[in-house]
């Protein structure tokens, strides 16, 4: 419930305000002249207006008055000061007189004649439904959407005894109208303010803070994890913005980009306001907070998210949470087109990338994969429009003998006119290290730019944009448990994540920082258990270690790139320490955390690992008892969760891939039949076994199309990889 705040006149008396309002309709310039000299020295936004938009009952009028008082500027309520002045009758009388459709037209005409500057303007709930009027208001205004949950609005309207709003007719409820109007609000706003059940004074503070951030994009810049100075003392000319880090991928000093001021925090009320929201709505709200509108405006971001998740995922919930047994729940992340969690980022990132890059340059996106990233990158970038595909190509490097046969066939089948796969005769760590070395080789990147007009970019999780969509599904999973009445909001959960490159689990840690009540992140490894040892001892030791091929190849990784971002975080942005640690790792093959940092780390993380035998046994056991099939990576996490989680709260296990991507291991675990070598035959065998859940639709279709398609194979040699890159550039861009 809003507390009504007594409004005191600002500077002028009521009579002067009335004169000024009349001047707005006769001579807009005159009104501006009256206020110009006074307002220019007081306003947060200069001659711009702050335009408050939202449903009836959102508190626009009350919030507008408070904001105006704080800024010492005019406050204009469209209902009271414009419509009723123009019509010489109340708004309710006008609505009754002309009816819904004509009312919207008359309201729009009145707004088109209205002009102001340096004011706080409270729109009516129906103003956004008139396109021309809203375009007029946006020309000189920052539109702030007061986003209040529908149940809160309905309670307010009931207490205000409002039983009719514009558009209502017999058989149409207030709830239906409010839901219908959301599409119009989302079309026009520059800034969204989540209101929840906040009192008006609190909402006004949020509005002022949001406008300040909107006006100052320097508040949301990025630094390298290896920056030698603290984030708050970096020179202005070295700032990097979101669009910069998307296109550059890796920092010039070899570090990874992180936000200078950290990630945004959500209040408990703001998270609770998203409980009833869809996955796409949650993604929109969370990503808006993480991406400054100067980089991607809210309407464009909404378009990107809608395109990414609207039709490309087979489950309407996008990332559903399913109860497995006891206190264990599965977060199903395999409903995208390539059947793995990588789709959540890589259906979004290509569109973000295409929007952020300059139009005057061609880009080649490089990616290294341990299995799932490759097909997801190829699929995502192949869905760009024709014009973008002409200037953006992607090259995927994968260990030729280090992925499952189905993953390999999938990567070959996902090749398109702007997307290619290259098998490398080495392991994932070599592929990833090679890409990092290419990015930091200024002579080579400069040569590509001058000779071919082509810049390089990265699509691995070293790219900051890859991590943001992953934060969304961890937050959404928690909200789903609340929505399903499994837990009340505020109760803690644990999450257990099969972990290789540390990106997925880092996203969960970021969700925790942003206010999701995650107690512990359980890091699950296979026999390549360097992370398990590190989290337990603080010693990261690669000496004498070689990657062991396992049934869960996506976590067959020894050098976990995104761990660097987490160490930078717990070291209080000490870039010099991070540089020292990673130089030691590069030169000596190991490093050790000091005791205080290890204690910080262990407040967030616990870790365990799973053998190959235990992985297959878990798949068999879960299927025997529940009829559900875990993929090999999820089985690794299930085994570790069973061992480490204390069952005092729910644990959400990230199910990172569809089981059919790993058919040989599944067939072996379930003891079904002799394993055939042909990947398509393996899928058909799984399909024919009627007790099993269906194989993934996208995977089956891709393998059917693979046919005689081939791919390039390259030796584990830097010069050979660079030659492959030049050949692709010549073939695609020249």
TrEMBL record:
Record pathway: Amino-acid biosynthesis
Entry-linked InterPro entries: P-loop_NTPase, Ser/Thr_deHydtase_PyrdxlP-BS, Shikimate/glucono_kinase, Shikimate_kinase/TSH1, Thr_synth_N, Thr_synth_N_sf, Thr_synthase-like, TrpB-like_PALP_sf
GO process annotations (BP): amino acid biosynthetic process
Modification N6-(pyridoxal phosphate)lysine, positions: 342
Cofactors that this protein relies on: pyridoxal 5'-phosphate
Gene Ontology, cellular component aspect: cytoplasm
Origin superkingdom: Eukaryota
Identification of the protein by name: THNS1 protein
Organism: Ceuthmochares aereus
Lineage: Eukaryota, Metazoa, Chordata, Craniata, Vertebrata
